[in-house]
Amino acid sequence: MHINGETKLIGFFGTTYRTSKMYAVYNAALQALGLNYLYVPFAVDDLAQAVAGVRHLGVAAVGVTVPYKIAILPYLDALDTAAQQIGAVNVVVNESGRLVGGNTDGLGALRALEERGPVRSKPVLLLGAGGAARALAFALHAAGARLHILNRTVAHAQDLAAAVGPDVQVGGYALLPAVLRPETIVINATSVGMVNTPEVERSLVPAHLLHPSMRVMELVSVPHATRLTRDAVAAGCTVVYGDRMLLWQSVYKFKMYTGVEPPVEVMEAALGK
Ligand code: NAP
Fold first, then answer.
1. Fewest C-beta in 10 Å: which of 18, 35, 49, 60?
2. Which of 191, 205, 240 has the most ligand 1 atoms within 8 A of CB, as the residue to mutate?
3. pTM above 0.70?
4. Residue 244 CB contacts under 8 Å (≥ 6 apart), including other chains
5. Peptide bond before 182: cis, by omega within 30 degrees of 0?
6. Which of 8, 21, 69, 255 is catalytic?
7. Residues of the chain below pLDDT 50
8. Cβ neighbourhood burial of 19 (10 Å; 0-12, 13-18, 19+)
9. Within a 10 A sphere around the Cβ of 84, how many other Cβ atoms?
10. How many CB atoms are located within 10 Å of the residue 254 CB?
11. What pLDDT shows up at residue 78?
12. Are 226 and 1 in contact (CB under 8 A)?
């Protein structure tokens, strides 16, 4: 790595900036391509001032995560189509002083899911109606999946379905046994199963409802294996782990950060470390 007067910075805004795995991933990719960028953490305390810093320091781009994905919107100059639909950003690119927000969560999740088979015309049961579920719902619907959204707060699922399309069905988790079929693709887009929460050992899908012909996707990436994915492996389902979405949404971000095709194998190897 050779830092000089031309080195460009890509920063990261999010409360997980101390523990993020992405420094290794992006810097390995930048180095492999010989690009004169550095990907670094930013400890944000005042978001407005932090965004002003991006403008005034000529920071090339920022990755954005919880709790800034929506809060940052008023400080940006434009949003791409995905970010407009989702109503949140996970990437900001500085285009000569114009800050443009984008969102790669939906495309990244879809790519991870389609590594294990197509989604067109398939029944998909999406659990959750928060930011990640919203990104997935638009991407899955555009890809031709038949979408059923269940959420703890049914009104949130109804709002999401109304935004995505009239053919999207909704409900609460009591409908799980009625909705699940052997051919259903099941996606957990809630925070149930996440590390450092009281729900870490829980799954929203009772194990006896899982079937070997199901594809089960988990968005939680820490821990790598959740109760849902362990149950799904035991039931013989095809399992897609949260790490795969993390990889693909980062691959799409890299292209936005640099304009250059990402070295996917390098990023994959660095994420696995
Ligand atoms: P969010 O906007 O806060 O939404 C949280 C969702 O979880 C809501 O649907 C919420 O239901 C539900 N929920 C929370 N606690 C629950 C409980 N005890 N029982 C049932 N449902 C519960 O969060 P998010 O940004 O969408 O993130 C959701 C998950 O996706 C997180 O685990 C996050 O780490 C993961 N994620 C992964 C990636 C990746 O690249 N792998 C990317 C983005 C997000 P209510 O509407 O009823 O509150």
1. 18
2. 191
3. yes
4. 112, 115
5. no
6. 69
7. none
8. exposed
9. 14
10. 28
11. 98
12. no
